[in-house]
Amino acid sequence: MDNQKVKDAKNPSGPVKVKSYKIWVDRNLCIGAATCIAVSPKAFALDSEAKAVILETADEDTIENIIEGTKACPVAAIFIEDEKGNRVFPK
């Protein structure tokens, strides 16, 4: 992860708020494929256990790109809800 900082040090895989969305990674599902990072490197990184974490810089990315990064996960381990609690992905 180099010098990248996670959005929430106590819950590096979330849930965290990015813009008006709640995002989290199910660490039991995550296989460390890193496709989320390939699509959305400002939002995601892998920790020392090869599990996706949400970065402080996620707020600099667009929600559309973060959703694309989420959709790229081969095991659908990343979840996004809107401000009303409606599931954006996976549906």
From TrEMBL:
Membrane-spanning intervals of the chain: none
Keywords of the record: Electron transport, Iron, Iron-sulfur, Metal-binding, Transport
Domain 4Fe-4S ferredoxin-type residues, every copy: 21-49
Family matches, as InterPro entries: 3Fe4S_ferredoxin, 4Fe4S_Fe-S-bd, Fe-S_cluster_ET
Highest rank taxon of the organism: Bacteria
GO molecular function: electron transfer activity; iron ion binding; iron-sulfur cluster binding
Pfam families attached to this UniProt entry: Fer4_15
Biological role stated in the UniProt entry: Ferredoxins are iron-sulfur proteins that transfer electrons in a wide variety of metabolic reactions.
Official protein name in the record: Ferredoxin
Organism this protein belongs to: Candidatus Roizmanbacteria bacterium CG23_combo_of_CG06-09_8_20_14_all_35_49
